[in-house]
Amino acid sequence: MLRESVSEAVRLLLTDAEVWSIILRSLLVSGTAVLMAGLVGIPLGVVIGMHRFRGRGPLVSVINTGMALPPVVVGLVVFMLLSRSGPLGSLGLLYSKQAMVVAQLVLAVPLVLGITVSGVSSVPREALTQARSLGASWLQTALVAVSEARVLLLVAIVAGMGRVIAEVGAVMMVGGNITGETQVMTTAIMEEVRKGNFAPALALGIILLTIAFAANGLMARLEQRTIDT
Question: Which of 55, 71, 83, 168 has the most CB atoms around it within 10 Å of its CB?
């Protein structure tokens, strides 16, 4: 049975347009969420990482806690916000790709933010002090910090992608797993397994594992570069 399922999974990956539609939808939703998380998390992380201020310790603790947010809890909160009786219900976003992006954004931001803060905080203070002594503006000094921590900032983006593309609870809750509309790899795998259709589930699982291995491999190489430099 396993051999037949693997053979059929490979055939589906080579010939089935619906399987690739699900894969591309997953990449689009997760990629959009991670891009937005980078636009929010990296600038905030740079600001927090560069400065020492009262309450910074508790703030960083909150951010680090957010890195482990349970996806189903995030899905529940977003669902309540976007439901008809919720404060954002008038937008009509529930059971849409936009709702899925919002849920994944909430999951990705703390991870991107936390790694960015850690990376910028590890930049030698002498480099920033030297930039200021040479007359650099705050923005120019921030760019120096970003340049010094650029490898860890890339790690933050890759880690965010790995976190959200393999997530199932939140996207199932707010997206509804609608075939052809909001069905992504993780939710499609669950549905096909329930139906006993192991070949398409395995095909999607192969792609999901490939993405996970690629993300982990890239993070390992980036982290090794950080150690080497």
Answer: 71
